[in-house]
Amino acid sequence: MNLIDLFKEMQTVDASDLFITVGKKPYMRVLREIQKLDVGEVEEGEFLEFLAEHLPPDIRNRLESARDLDIGVSLDNENRYRINLFYQKGHMAMVVRRVPSGALAFADLHLPEIIKAFAETPRGLVLVTGSTGSGKSTTMAAMLYHINSTAACHIVTIEDPIEFVHQDQSSIVSQREVGSDTSSFSESLRRVVRQSPDVIFIGELRDLDTIKTAISAARTGHLVVTTMHTVDVTQTLDRIINYFPEQLRDQIAMDLSFTLRGIVTQRLLPRKSGYGVVPALEILVATPIVRHLINTRDLDAIEDVMKADSVEGMQTFNRALTDLFRNDLITMETGAAAATNKDEFLLSVQGMETGIDSLRSSDNETGETKTNMKSLLRAAIRHKASDLLVTVGSAPLLRIDGDLQELNLECLTSAHTQQLLFSILNPAQRSQFELEKEIDFALSVSMNLSGEEEEQQKYRFRANGFYQKGCVSAAIRVISQEIPDPESLGLPPIVLEMVRRAHGLILVTGPTGHGKSTTLACMINQINASRSCHIITIEDPIEYVHTSNKAVIEQREVHADTKGFRNALKYVLRQDPDVILIGEMRDPETIGAALTAAETGHLVLATLHTNDCAQSIDRVIDTFPAHQQNQVRAQLAASLIGVVAQRLLPRLTGDGRVPVFEIMLGTTPIQALIRDNRTHQILAAIETGAKDGMVTMDKALQQAYRQNLVSRNTVLTLARDNNII
Questions:
Q1: For residue range 431-457, what is the model confidence (pLDDT) as tens digits?
Q2: What is the pTM of this model?
């Protein structure tokens, strides 16, 4: 009997294993069942003949010495076998495993699209992990097949043993088996980069040397795909970092954060139908926030990121198990047994979620919206909107003349809003946003409004990104291309008189979206056009861009040019300013620094989110603890030039908005009221100070109404005294 004929028979009957023992009839495993072959017993001469003709020359000596031996053999270009040689009862025996073809498609294996994205990344480290028998090698074979089918490159595999056979297609595939083609993983890896590979597949990260070499290869421009015997994403990262001595762990965490592209941890579960298995995958994608957490070794926070960022393709095991159960692929009992957190899985399959998950939409839509951020910003400019709002469950909204109006577009899902905001964030901003859950930044976009071929113009926007109910939202303010002049803004002459002062404090207050930044920009522009001085602005973010005229203007943006308002104000007096603009006074340190600067010979302009002048004074003082408030009252009374509280009201004609201003000047009576803590009398002092240019909000509303600029209802909603009209 020729044993090679038995190998060929394996292909015919689709057997997975062949059992050959001297003195016994051979057996095959077909569809998991052992079947005896209808042939004679295997003779020792036949066995030795096979060893001599098809295996290395020293194989018999090695077998007699070691008594057990693993070896791979290719009998032709397409068929490969994994052979375990051993002795039993003094006779030689072998078990032959047929190595299948690696031509495996992702869809056939129920692998998600993100696995394909990992395979298509040009460089970096991809880890496929799981316990023994969880299908790691199969997933890696599918990735290799995809690369081999779509890319022209050199793929080198280092395996122990080779488990899937790959034929050259678009790529060159060099499959090396430990024991037959190389002495060890570490020895092969030391030399693999000299073999000009583009992609390196490593059968397993077994020791410190292998891990170091894999990360080094990923850092030097290669795509490295490998496996580990770990049961989840967090354990995988922890295992890699803790392989190294304590003094090297921070460095390896940083290296890993740079090179990692993703981790796929998998478990194979029996199908509900009883036929076959289905994979449950926990997937980590190396987004900016994930890189930050790895670099800082804050691995416990990674699960929360995977729960929150399904749009990127990330998911936890419990989410994967829940989806398999809802798709009727596994039973509840199977899912509960495989779940990392059994109770959380059981709650999830019953439609109950914990924490912020309970507020997220149950749809798993990850498709891209046809709307992109640039088209939305173009729409905001065309419609002369002040703001663009992007939120889940609604079409994009424009604020036009103070009213919100929906664009005629589809309602946005959580996937859409995240894609829209992330499309205008750089990696550092995205990491900051995902860590802090909110972000302010400025945006400059070049575009033309007609869509025709003409010179593009640059438009600026102020954007705020935030989370609500676990989903991404954004509010984007349109910043005027030109700094408006005082006449177009309707600024009273007394406001322009304020900025002619050499030192002191000017506050511009009002609700969000009522033009405080525009008023400040106009005031700075007036100083720039009339005085030779040094102006420093501290803004978050920079909105209007100023060009030095008579003055020298330096604009500093929080996070880009300085760490924060507090930090910038700590050093601003050493930068020889004459005028200081503070985008917003947010805390006691910022307010204290502003008062000190105003007292020491500088003109300080700043904003507050308050409704009127008296409230602005109270807000400044109440920010400080009780034991400091008398001192703050004295400082504020001595330095205050004036307060401008403004509102933008819809025009009676419906085309645009009208500004109205409450103005308080730092006259002697006002200073006395502030020092003596009699701010409740400030309104009366403003009324009696009309001759000095002071105006109450009621008086400003009355004037706008009498000039037929605003409606009666608009006035009544804001006036303290409804009898003014």
A1: 888 888 899 888 888 787 765 556 678
A2: 0.64
